[in-house]
Amino acid sequence: MQSRLFSDDGSFQNSVMLEPEWYWADAGQQNSFLLKAFGRYDDLDAERSHIDIQEALWLHVADGWEFRAGIAKVFWGVTESNQLVDVINQTDLVEAVDGKQKLGQAMLHATMIRDWGIVDAFVLPGFRQRTFAGKNGRLHGGVIIDSDNALFEHPHKQDHIDLALRYSHTVDVFDFGIGWFKGTNREPIIIPLATAADSDMVSARPYYDQMQQLSLDMQATLADWLLKVEVIRRQDSLTQFAAFAAGFEYTLVGWAGTDVDVGLLAEYSRDSRNSRSTSLFQNDLFLGIRWGFNDVQSTELLLGYVQDLSNSSSATAFIEGSRRLGSNWKLVVDIRTFASSNSNELLYGIRHDDYAAVTLEYFF
To answer: CB of 165 within 8 A of CB of 116?
Structure first.
């Protein structure tokens, strides 16, 4: 169960979640099946009440290759703040405002494993739309998205079949991946429609165009340093642009003679579209501190701050923490604050939506 407190008016948003999981494997471990679902009921926002099959995946393992079929989540990338290359799954925006929660994606996924690297090939049927907060929800920025009447560039709409390839390998201290994606853009263009006479909210429809993206992600491990970079080149129906995110994480192992590990993070993001960018990270600096307490309760804490370098008034800050309570309970804390004085910026609409969320999870 989760409760979110919004500081501007003291209102609460409460919800309950269920995440069942079932796993099976044959005696030889060559075939397995994973079923993982997620459901949430929210007392405020009907759009946040939803059920998602996150994984329903059959895996076959053979000598030098693997094959997966079903619904799954696949993650590409290495950076903490701005995961540019992660394009397989759709963003579940009602679950996390930072875009890191994803919806399950139907796929056929073949993997070839060789000494010279790993090649992954994907066939992705059944496009899924991004989720958005409803009229009675929070963090919609005053724009209500009509997902029931979404627009698509391709005539097959959600039935368009997307394709993706990825080559990954490790060379000395470098882990890298080269990706290619061709299909329906996971990031919709929001087309405003009208403002109701009795409301200050704007209605809009999402438009999903076709795009092609080339990407590179790389991480170098140098003792206590992790150097990270993600680069993309994307061409869609409106424009062609490049973007990158680069930075480091330095870990102080056993900080001050204790069992605590402290990670210092810094990343810079740049988008060649500048003010036309649909991303929050067009020219931004991220700074963070991560604590891993290495205790029996698996206590973790991450503090982060993102500053827009093009507009000093635009910034976000967050605190994420978790701790096990006994053998069956887990406490998760998520605190976020938003600041912007420029009405043309994406953050402006949610500048009054600072919140603190507390989630209590029970495992059985």
So the answer is: no
